[in-house]
Automatic annotation (TrEMBL):
Major subcellular site: nucleus
Keywords, sorted A to Z: Membrane, mRNA transport, Nuclear pore complex, Nucleus, Protein transport, Translocation, Transport
Location relative to the cell: Nucleus envelope; Nucleus, Nuclear pore complex
Name this protein carries in UniProt: Nuclear pore protein
Family indicated by similarity: Belongs to the nucleoporin interacting component (NIC) family.
Species for this entry: Gigaspora margarita
Length: 738
């Protein structure tokens, strides 16, 4: 039996040490001593990106803000993120930028982010996650309701400010008709707006309007209220009070209580006013002034008037629609037992959703308007989800970031949602999968020279981290995993030094923890996946030479195992497992005399290199040399000395796993080499070579003793090291040599 057929015995040499895993998270869990909060079914995120798509202008202008945001977080400085995103969007040209800018303005007003210059607050700073306790706490509790009213007021303020800007532009378009000059007051500007609206040439007729000095008096009050000038509107109303008809004699009193009570009529007064309004018969009125009906609707805070008088021609835009309903909101949730004419934010939100994009988007020509309507009604998760499905994908991601920064974004616990948006409970409270949103966007950046860009976005996932809660700890660990995966997929090892600067944002306390959590864990993953050079590069970053030697030993063991199996290596694998290169590296480390390296590790390395020579000699059928090498290695006993045999068997148990896993195949090959050498001697003896017969006979007897010693040695090995199948093969070869 001269064949060099190689024994087979299963999978990779590492499989007893590392178990195959369906996802990166499971292997990371296996290699860290800390408790894990990631479930076995956690989805793996890949940051490999083969796309040739170039980063567009939106990517670039927003990325600059993200870097500044993270640096501000690192310095523990409040950052006016919405204003900075607003300024970035202004750099985007054409109509696209203008539409997005308006939405950023709206959001800044909603959360009251103001007095910001170059990202810094000059006064009244908003803190990171400022609104999270109220917004993400129990639904409809006192804190949530208070916050919701603040958000509504911010939305109204935006619509009023926008209307003031529109008023100025409109008056400038009809300067002759508006007759406005000098430095006009708010009251005079309102008059000018009305003159332009009701101009004789192409304006809205004043038929049915109560006029004083060619100005609709109810319109004058309304325009001031619509512009946000409530005090001025009250002053004007008082000035017109004596000119109002008898049925409106109490309006000014109601209006004053509305203004002085923070734009909310006291409940008792409202009940009286609504009762009076329900008795109306508009056909009996001397005037049918739509402005009057609008003002009554505002003060009574009714979603619609009882008799539904025609006011649409005076409230023509979606902005008017939204403002009218926001100013009429009296409650946040429907109150049991409250009059059914009481408008709540919850019901307004449902109204906006029921109307849908088609109502706001002007026949699909302006897709961002529905997004703005959702923002203005504090439906932030749904707003981002909607916008993400349009051509404004990049903007949707950054709106989500701004909202998450201030704590105005609910995310599902433990990232369990497969969908981007999920609605939970009877109230259908929306949760946005912020993790998926950011990871998908980061993936688009993780190509070319942009893995560091992707890292800046992954840092934002830590906004929802909290070491004091289970969900928060889960989020932190998941963020660690995403960052490891980014480095793994892009091999951005040279970025680790820069990444380390952001340890505080990653809830990592010191360099040692960073090394273990990110670098060492990632290196172990590279080892499991056979990316040995990548693992060595990672260990060299931390000068962990002990692990490097251990890694090189693993590489040698893997090479030996592959050689034994006769597996044809792919070029990439062959390059990874080049024994000559490994030998060169080991000699280099020995030459510089690194003290941190254990002598036993280096001894194992030399043993493995010799084993490589042994296996190569066997494959080349140089059995004599192979037997000589394996004896010199002193791995197995070759004398029938029970004490020595027992000592060798015990020493095998102390071997590193990567070497121990090769023992069965090496033992089998050793026996085959001895057997093949023995057969060669028998052939030589049969030829009857003169003068050598005695030599061949002695050598054959020596080989027989070596074979018996190996079989005895195998009997002392534990089943965990040597299978019964290998033992029987050894015994069979031994019997054939007797």
């Amino acid at each position: 039996m001269r064949s060099t057929e190689l024994p087979t015995s299963g999978g990779s040499v590492f499989r007893s040490q590392f178990s195959p895993s369906a996802s990166l998270s499971s292997s990371f869990r296996a290699s860290t001593s800390k408790p894990s909060y990631i479930t076995s079914g956690e989805r793996r995120i890949s940051f490999k990106n083969e796309s040739t798509l170039q980063l567009n202008q939106r990517h670039l202008v927003y990325f600059d803000v993200i870097v500044k945001l993270n640096n501000a977080r690192l310095a523990k400085i409040e950052y006016g993120i919405i204003n900075e995103f607003h300024n970035a969007a202004r750099k985007i040209s054409l109509d696209y930028g203008r539409k997005v800018v308006q939405c950023w303005r709206a959001l800044a007003s909603i959360v009251k982010e103001s007095n910001v210059f170059d990202g810094s607050f000059k006064r009244n700073p908003l803190k990171q996650r400022q609104f999270a306790p109220a917004y993400q706490g129990p639904a409809f509790n006192t804190a949530y309701k208070s916050l919701s009213f603040d958000l509504i007021n911010g939305a109204k303020h935006y619509l009023e400010e926008s209307y003031r800007e529109w008023s100025t532009a409109y008056v400038n378009s009809f300067r002759n008709e508006a007759m406005l000059g000098g430095q006009p007051s708010a009251i005079n500007m309102a008059r000018a707006v009305l003159r332009a609206i009701h101009r004789s040439n192409g304006g809205i007729p004043t038929t049915g309007l109560r006029m004083v000095d060619n100005i609709p008096i109810w319109g004058h009050i309304f325009i001031l209220v619509r512009q946000g000038y409530y005090k001025e509107a009250l002053d004007v109303a008082k000035g017109y009070e004596s000119l109002l008809p008898r049925q409106d004699i109490h309006f000014v009193r109601y209006f004053e209580r509305f203004i002085t009570n923070n734009n909310k009529l006291p409940s008792q007064d409202r009940q009286k006013l609504v009762a009076e309004m329900k008795q109306w018969n508009p056909l009996t009125f001397q005037d049918k002034d739509p402005y009057k009906f609008i003002m009554y609707q505002i003060v009574a805070q009714l979603e619609e008037l009882p008799q539904k008088p025609p006011v649409e021609s005076f409230l023509t835009t979606s902005e008017d629609f939204m403002w009218m309903r926001l100013i009429c909101v009296r409650e946040i949730e429907p109150i049991v037992g409250a009059p059914n004419d009481t408008l709540s934010l919850d019901s307004l939100q449902k109204t906006v959703r029921n109307l849908g994009p088609s109502h706001f988007n002007h026949g699909g020509k302006d897709t961002i308007q529905y997004f703005r309507a959702l923002l203005l009604t504090a439906q932030f998760e749904r707003a981002v989800h909607y916008l993400y499905q349009t051509t404004f994908t990049e903007d949707a991601v950054h709106f989500a970031i701004a909202l998450a920064y201030y704590g105005l974004l609910r995310i599902p616990d433990k990232g369990e949602a497969m969908a981007l948006l999920v609605e939970v409970g009877d109230r259908m409270i929306p949760y946005l999968n912020f993790n998926t949103l950011i990871c998908q966007y980061a993936r688009s950046l993780a190509k070319g020279n942009a893995p560091s860009n992707a890292f800046q976005y992954l840092l934002l996932l830590y906004l929802h981290g909290d070491p004091l809660t289970e969900a928060g700890r889960y989020q932190i660990e998941l963020c660690h995993e995403y960052i490891r995966q980014l480095i793994y997929d892009t091999e951005a090892f040279n970025e680790l030094g820069k990444m380390k600067e952001y340890m505080p944002l990653m809830f990592i306390d010191n360099e040692g923890e960073f090394t273990e959590t990110i670098i060492n864990t990632l290196a172990r993953q590279c080892v499991e996946d056979g990316k040995f050079k990548a693992a060595r590069s990672l260990y060299e970053l931390t000068q962990n030479f002990e692990e490097i030697i251990s890694l090189l030993n693993k590489m040698l063991a893997e090479y030996i195992w592959i050689s034994i199996r006769g597996v044809v290596m792919q070029p990439e694998t062959a390059k990874e497992l080049d024994p000559q290169e490994i030998s060169r590296i080991l000699k280099e480390y020995e030459h510089i005399g690194i003290r941190k390296i254990s002598p036993n590790r280096l001894k194992d390395s030399r043993t493995l290199l010799n084993l490589v020579d042994f296996v190569e000699s066997y494959k080349q059928q140089d059995f004599v040399r192979a037997v000589t090498i394996i004896q010199q290695i002193d791995l197995f006993p070759f004398e029938d000395d029970i004490i020595v045999i027992q000592q060798k068997a015990s020493s095998i148990e102390a071997f590193d796993d990567q070497l121990k896993n090769c023992i069965p195949e090496l033992l089998h090959i050793t026996m085959r080499c001895i057997y093949a050498y023995y057969q060669q001697l028998k052939d030589n003896m049969a030829k009857g070579t003169p003068g050598l017969l005695r030599k061949y006979t002695d050598e054959s007897a020596t080989l027989q003793r070596k074979a018996r010693a190996l079989v005895t040695f195998a009997g002392y090995l534990k089943h965990s090291v040597l299978s019964s199948d290998i033992y029987h093969k050894l015994h069979e070869l031994d019997v054939q040599m007797r």
